[in-house]
Amino acid sequence: MNIIVAFAKAEDAHKFKSILLRGGFDNITAVTSGMQALSAMEDLGSGVIVCGYRLSDMLYSDLVEDLPGYFQMLMIASADKSPAGNDNSRLIYLPTPVTKENLYSTLSMMMEGVSRARQKAKQHRLSRSDADKQVINKAKEILMDKHHMTEPEAHKYLQKCSMESGCNMVEAAEMVLSLGNM
């Protein structure tokens, strides 16, 4: 599972990375800006971002709004920076000072949650109804006929559209069908 450590000061990011490495975590990327964090999240696909209240180019609140689907955020900051009325289920806040044990257990819990969400989505994809399969196959046929794609290319195109638009593959196929019938 991937971890991104994002703090405005590079030395803070590297200290947290070092603490997590000593705690047995791996696949850790350290960054100092929100844009770097978003780019890393896009590359990695899933995981947890550990960050402070402020990054070099944005606040945690701006970053949490742009979290990709399979990412959660652990925000570590002083009590006066506590997120007021936090209704975002993908944001967990730990007040400073934080103990290693609390950090490790919270991070492990979050990583397990991300892993479960991915597994659940995978099972859902594998158990599509016959109607959903027909919609996807019709969309692939349109792509293959009108755009001279192979079946694997059409499938990959639907997956890409699905990921880019933030919808599931059936919804992406329905979009192709609605555009294909114009």
Instruction: Give the H and E element order.
Output: EHEHEHEEHHHH
Strand line-up across the major sheet: 2-1-3-4-5
Strand content: 5-15%
**Rg from alpha-carbon coordinates:** 20 Å
Molecular structure report:
With 182 residues, the protein is an alpha/beta fold. It has two domains: 3-125, 3-Layer(aba) Sandwich (Rossmann fold), CATH 3.40.50; 130-180, Winged helix-like DNA-binding domain superfamily/Winged helix DNA-binding domain (Arc Repressor Mutant, subunit A, Orthogonal Bundle), CATH 1.10.10.10. The chain has helices spanning 10-22, 34-44, 60-65, 100-126, 130-147, 151-165, 169-180; strands at 3-6, 28-31, 46-51, 70-77, 91-95. Helix 3 (60-65) links the parallel strand 3 and strand 4. The protein is elongated, with a radius of gyration of 20 Å.
List keywords for this structure.
about 180 residues, 7 helices, Arc Repressor Mutant, subunit A, 5 strands, Rossmann fold, elongated, alpha/beta
Summarize the SSE layout with pairings.
Elements: E1 3-6, H1 10-22, E2 28-31, H2 34-44, E3 46-51, H3 60-65, E4 70-77, E5 91-95, H4 100-126, H5 130-147, H6 151-165, H7 169-180
Parallel strand pairs: 1-2, 1-3, 3-4, 4-5
Helix pairs in contact: 5-6, 5-7, 6-7
